[in-house]
Design a protein that fits this description.
It contains 5 helices and 6 strands. By secondary structure, it is of the alpha/beta class. It is globular and about 45 Å long. Helix content is 26%, strand content 13%. A hairpin with a 6-residue loop joins strand 1 and strand 2.
Length: 186
């Protein structure tokens, strides 16, 4: 049976729960995130310096400082073969750039599968590091993000990739409701 551990670290977008399976990062979840597993599934608590969390925290610190972390972290991401392909394509989107769901579907050789790409994107268990926030709607509109549109805007602005605002087109079908009082919102 796989051994799971977790820790919680602070960030500019609120607390992040890091989860490891057999010592490899398998989850990064925001407070109030859609599709966040139950806390009971995260395993036993570990300190932020425990393997692999120290390396992940260094990556996140660099990222939130506006640096471009140039190294990949080992990941253990459970999902369907199609989800795995989408998540691999997400990792290929460069820092500071965005792609539409349709563009990502075309890259995968499935140009009519933008909805399926969106569903897989929403199930990404390692947000920020696997940058699902870099996927936007057609025409540059910001659409649903498991962590909420405010967080998506923050991450894209940090990377200098925020599309021109068009408030009439912004939708957030993934809005988890108001953030908990302890969440840090910008």
């Amino acid at each position: 049976m796989p051994q799971r551990t977790h820790t919680v670290v602070g960030s500019p977008v609120g607390p992040l729960t890091l989860v490891a399976t057999d010592g490899v990062l398998s989850g990064l979840y925001m407070t109030g995130q859609r599709h966040r597993p139950a806390d009971e599934t995260f395993g036993s608590p570990a300190g932020p310096g425990a393997t692999p969390f120290g390396e992940v925290v260094r990556f996140l610190d660099a990222y939130f400082a506006g640096e471009r972390p140039h190294y990949g972290l080992p990941l253990h991401m459970a999902g369907t073969p199609f989800q795995q392909r989408v998540w691999a394509a997400l990792r290929d989107i460069p820092y500071g750039e965005t792609r539409s769901y349709g563009e990502l579907a075309a890259v995968l050789g499935r140009p009519t599968a933008s909805r399926a790409v969106g569903m897989a994107n929403g199930r990404n268990p390692v947000g920020i590091i696997v940058p699902c926030h870099r996927v936007i709607g057609a025409g540059g509109s910001l659409t649903g993000y498991g962590g909420g549109l405010d967080r998506k805007r923050h991450l894209l602005a940090l990377e200098g990739a925020l599309p021109d605002p068009d408030p009439g087109r912004a939708t957030d079908s993934a809005a988890p409701g108001p953030a908990p009082a302890h969440a840090v919102l910008f």
